[in-house]
Design brief:
Shape: globular
Largest sheet: 3 strands, parallel
Oligomer: single chain
Structural class: alpha/beta
Order of helices and strands: HEHHHEHEHEEHH
Number of strands: 5
Strand content: 5-15%
Radius of gyration: 18 Å
Helix content: 40-55%
Number of helices: 8
């Protein structure tokens, strides 16, 4: 039981599909998720305040999430996964379908989270994000890893390609995958 608690506290998850409650306010959502991760009292309140401010949601803390824009929901979804300062944060397409400003805020804070020592496991179709954020990249096609390495190493292995997207297309082909 103690090991499971330790694992739960070490891991954060930010799923692609929003995992927040639309009938609760931003603060109520974060209070719920924070308690699930073992945060309580002033520690929880202070961390919620810090995260709301960090992601530009402090003025909307008492609004129902159902009234949020797509970018606000995406930012709140991200906060639920990193509220407890996990050692490993799994992110599945955290910037899909949002405005440029929200994407910028999310990516800037993910760099900070990474630089503070959290390991990010980042799934994305946006190659530029992977190139800028990740120290190691695996290009996966049809469930198989087809190449693996540091972005710079991958680019040097494929001098005909200017970026990871070029490598991805070179290795997987250009035909549609419906």
């Amino acid at each position: 039981h103690h090991e499971m608690d330790a694992i739960k506290h070490a891991i954060g998850v930010v799923p692609q599909d929003l995992a927040i409650y639309p009938t609760l306010t931003a603060r109520e959502n974060l209070t719920f998720f924070g308690k699930m991760y073992g945060l309580h009292g002033h520690q929880l309140k202070d961390r919620i305040d810090e995260c709301l401010e960090m992601f530009g949601l402090e003025k909307s803390a008492k609004k129902l999430v159902s009234a949020f824009s797509g970018g606000m929901k995406r930012r709140l979804n991200l906060v639920t996964g990193l509220l407890h300062k996990p050692k490993i944060l799994f992110l599945d397409e955290p910037t899909v379908g949002i405005d440029v400003q929200s994407k910028k805020v999310i990516l800037e804070h993910l760099v900070d989270v990474r630089n503070e020592g959290t390991t990010l496991i980042y799934t994305s179709h946006y190659m530029e994000e992977a190139e800028n954020l990740c120290s190691n990249v695996a290009i996966i096609d049809m469930g198989k890893v087809i190449t693996l390495g540091k972005p710079r190493e991958l680019l040097s292995r494929h001098p005909d390609c200017h970026n990871l997207e070029g490598i991805f297309l070179k290795l997987t082909g250009r035909h549609l995958r419906d």
